[in-house]
User: Fold these one by one.
Assistant:
Number 1:
Amino acid sequence: MNNNLISNIIRFLILIFIQVGLFKNMGYYSLATPFPYILFILLLPIGLSNFMLFVIALLTGLTVDAFYDSVGVHAAACVALAWFRIFFHRITLDIDAQESLNTPSWGNMGFKWFGTYVVLSTLAHHIVLFFVEVFSFKNFLNTLSSIVLSSVFTIVLIFIIGIVTYRRKSRLAS
Amino acid sequence: MKNLWLFLVRYNAFFLFILFFVFSIVLVVRNNNYQRASFFNSSNAVVGSYFKKINSWKAYLALADDNQKLLEENALLRKQLQGFLAIDTNSQIQLIDSIEIDRYDFTVATVINNSIHQKSNYITLDKGSSHGVHANMGVITSNGIVGIVENVSKNFSTVRSLLHPDIRISVSLDSVSDAFGSLVWGNNIDSRYAMVRDIPNHVKAYVGQPIFTSGYSTLFPKGIKVGHVIEPEVVSGESFKEIRILLTTDFSKLHHVYIVKDKLAEEKVSLEALNKDNE
């Protein structure tokens, strides 16, 4: 448990630092901007209580907002991501797995589960993020293309991070 | 009562989501409406000093470029100085308006955080209220304009960059002609281009024509070059037209900027405020 806590804190610090120091400066005009910091929320322990999950997601969002000067935008997207995560875990994991405090990583869950998880979660996060940022349905196609291109960018980066940090452990789901 | 409780517990994820999401949206809307200096932005001390540290490493990568720019600026200033020396003061009586001579003060600042890929871009500078910076001052670089100071803390300030949908700057089409319009980012995608709006239709613009600041606001001195026309008529058939320009400022390579302090700003603003009272 203690070990888990420390590794999550370290993961948080590293991902936020990379996000605001490196990925903030990357992008294809303003069409595609990557946000791989959401990997932190995706990798929180599975059995975390809903309330804690929402609080952590909100604080993560506010931290990123502070660096992007966009109060509340990332917070809203991270909260939506947390909700999606709860929903996804409930329909894909059995009760034993839902109670455990394991990290839902590539090595633990297998590629099929982890891949679906990352792709769908990223889409959910980016849809909320870009619509809250624009705050209207004007230029719908423009926003939509931002969402799709940024999602592809983020997903690729998350898989690269996944490959670099891959460690195979016991399979919880296949 | 028990059923209600069970219902809430059963769907607690959904209710918590609504609660937290509404909280975030309230933050967004409040910030959009008032643009007040809030705690969660990059002029706050922790975030500011983090960017400053990162920037102190990044500065080395830009050294060659910066030196080149400084050399060019030196050359330009030297050329202007030469022009002044060459004037024969005996031939005519010189009248110099001493108010205009030191009307503007320039504070050098370093960009410690910059973005060009967002929909609303902001820049953080390493000068704050302790260096005499306050909100609504113009920011320029050696070859163009950058933006307007928005929030100030003790040692840092955030600048609303020209690449922001809510920014409008008064510009004139030529340093002498009186046709003026407002400069906006417009297309919201590319950091190299911007649009000039509200140019009367009878004014003819040509490709390559320089665009200057008009000096009508207290933000920027008159006659700073902003960019060149690349598409003289984007909208036609109405009484005003739009012009697409190529900016002279390279926002992706901003490093050293000047904050413009207009000493007569207060006087001008308070005089103009009288007009509104009389309406």
Note: The interface with chain B takes residues 20-21, 24-27, 29-31, 33, 50-51, 54, 57-58, 61-62, 65-73, 75-76, 79-80, 82-83, 86-87, 132-135 of chain A (CB under 8 Å).
Number 2:
Amino acid sequence: MALWAAPDAPAVLGDGARREALRAMLLAWADDELILGHRHSEWTGVAPDIESDVALSSIAQDELGHARLLYEQAAAEGQSPDRLAFGRRPEAFRNATLVERENGDWASTIVRIWLYDHADAARLAVLADSPLGSFAALARTLGREEKYHRLFADAWLERLARAGDDSRGRVQAALDALWREALAVFEPSPGEEALLAAGALVAGAAEQAVRWASAVVPRLEALGLRVPPERDVPVGGGRSGRHTPALAALLDEMTSVSRSDPEARW
Amino acid sequence: MTARAKPSPAPPVDTGAVLRALAEVEDPELPIAITEMGLVHAVSVRGGAVRVELLPTFSGCPALEVIRDRVRRRVAALPGIQTVDVAFVFEPAWTVGRITEAGRARLREHGVSVPRAGLAEPATCPHCGSTNTVLENPFGPTLCRAIYYCRDCRNPVERFKPSSDEPLAQGR
């Protein structure tokens, strides 16, 4: 049963094609939040300190709640959030491959959440500025809440980058490994050009990527970190369903309870 | 021939009756009514059809479904109700300013500090009243609470942390 008020049907969405394009975009974002939320939850109980343990568990809860909300607001008739989260094969997911990667070490976890949450802020800001009624309100809500994710990630990135050679080396290695996949968070979803042409969005994924890079690159450089070569070439595929084996393994674990009794009511 | 007395119809429900019923619905995470927390945004009544719009503290709060179900059950128990529609809305944003005075007192007794005006003001210790407090963790036992430490009475302090553009007080 729906938790949120039914979304607006703003005139600018007009025909079915634009509604479908918005739906595709929001479902991809929801998949990002669900999968990364699950990865964060893997730190529960084993993070390096109790504060980070509580923080990542809370951030995981936020991301799962946001996934649920986005699934509900974007779903077609008859698609439930649970079905979307637990009832799809890996190739039906549209999350960026960045978020499905195994957590790796703490530096890699921090670099990923930092890159991702700043990317999420860049795309939410565009939706928040749109003439899309309740969808813009939704983006403002998520943006306010996720500010706390960025505070956590900013503080840890700085701490690790300034903590000596081993620590800085691990951060740099994570950045080298993840940067181009982070850039692919901005692979556009199908139909984006129709939303832009109608004025439903003021900036597409390509422009969002530029805004993101201009926010994050100077901060990395100020910390003495180096943005990898080929910094403008994304390594993607997730938005068209091409994933790494890590996603299938994650889904296998995440859906094990729901698969044990698909008809169960919670 | 005498007309048979018709059973008197239930008095029509009005907004006030719905709000009084909502004042009996407790928040699942705190000993306070949802009306005292300021979670109720709007109530409308048309005949036997009631719609209640609620505000979340955080949209990912796992208590939202429990709150929705409690509201639906409580309102449906009023006489003359045919349908109850309960939904959360995104705006206006919930702020600590929505908590009533009675609610603040109750939360203080429970050990939760509530900022008066904004998040940037120093956290007040609900145990001893000191503002000699320091932020320990922006994340706490629930999404809507941060953890401070009181340097005077040396107790941990939970403090409300609405989603906001304001910075959190760091303390000394």
Note: Chain B touches chain A at residues 53, 58-62, 64-65, 68, 87-91, 93, 136-140, 143, 161, 163-165 (CB under 8 Å).
Number 3:
Amino acid sequence: MHPDHRSGELPDPFIERLAAQLREPVSLSPEVERVVLDRLRTRPARRRWPGVAGALAAGIAAAFGAGLLVGRWTAAPSAGVPSVRPVEFALRMPADSAVVLVGDFNDWNPAATPLHRATDGVWSVTVPLRPGRYRYTFIVDGTRWHRDPAAPRALEDDFGAPTSVITIAQR
Amino acid sequence: MTASPSLLQVSPSDAELVLRVRQGDLDAYGPLMTRYRLRFGRYAYHLLGNESDAEEALQDAFTLAYRSLDQCRHPERFAAWLFRILVNRCRTTGVRRGREQARRAPIEAADGIGVHHPSEEAMRREELARGLGRLVPEQREAFLLKYVEELSYEEMAALTGAGESALKMRVKRACEQLRELLGDTDAS
Amino acid sequence: MRRVILLLALGLLLRSPAAAAAQDPRLEARLDSATRVRVEAALESARREGLPTEPLVQKALEGASKGAPGPRIVAAVATVLADLRRAREALGPAAAEDDLVAAAAALRAGATPAMIGEMRRVAPHGAVAVPLAVFTDLVAGGMRTDVAWRSVADLARKGGDDEAFLRLRDRLEPAPPGSAPEAP
């Protein structure tokens, strides 16, 4: 017998037989979907997702796929430092907005990194980043702080404004 | 947001449907539910022991998932995210009903007239359901996740909040009890 | 007069590199003088103790960007410094900078120094930055601290590499409100 490759446990024929029976299809009412859709139509309580579209986030991740390592965080580059990688930040906002990106990678400078609006209503900018962990956020129209809905929220909120975190992998 | 090669393991259809739902297309949610009704319904049924509770838990999970879809950060992993919701709803449903599992009534003879002789397979299923129902909820949950959903202990730990050691013990005890209840002749 | 000039010149020559570096032009441009002096004092402490300074600078700049009052900026910088000190205590004097930064964030997320120390012992090659970063992200996403810790620590014990931690974090989506797991 070969151990279960996931847990290292030896398979047990009796238990395997039970499990096989339990894996047989169980047919619940096909009305489940209809009941749920009726419920949702009556009380939709959803709004359009204002941030980065899921596909865009997945596309970004797929385009810049890598492993994960928090690399050295230094103020100045030095020999042997991990290479810089382009990372795209994006946010869906109305056309007449002005959106900028601020974070640990640009000294939180609102003038440093404006986003540019694409035709599909998504504002974006690509920033070269070394491996590391960075806090950041978007500023919309100079006054509204908007965290990235596609990114982990930064836990610490020292200044009362929403902030996100990005971790850049090192290959 | 993190650059991640694991996100390359995409299920484009799920991600695409989630995106459409997020953009306001409620009808796109129907196919998503249909895709997972059978598999997740099976889990809910075995955990809760009857169709009614299982359907309720499944409907609640689908509803909650729809209303929280903004928080599904990886739409290509919608299934895993939905299953987590369902596992929790099943726990809530079981607790709310004040019992852990309702047993299906065995087929009974009526004065010898029109006696139904259940098939051997049906009897085996009933016996298994009874045995499963005799497990404490945590053991039943762990057994189903391990052997029916075929999750790793790591995945089970993340799903349930229990430590891997505790989960292994639950699975072990569940197996021992089932063997005892259902008469494991192989063990002799 | 010549003696005064000589003494002044000597003073300039003997001025420590640390003191010179303490005047970060970024802080000079963005903070009022009272706040800058106190932040630079924190930077000086960090340097003396061998702790990374950039996280403190960025915290101060973040506060400036968000229009925070000086005292709040100073308090936030002091908190970061305190977190880094705790991280150093937990990881030991030889801890790498990125490990310290990750440990500081994990401590803020609810990890205890004992957990950090445990991670140092169980993580492959003592590399804690990745597991701690994943832990922090999981907690930030809404996962309970103990649940997140167990997931990460278990994987570390099994020798998970960076890819494995990444996959773990990607798999573990936070549960939406109203569906949190019950206590085990």
Note: The radius of gyration of chain C is 21 Å.
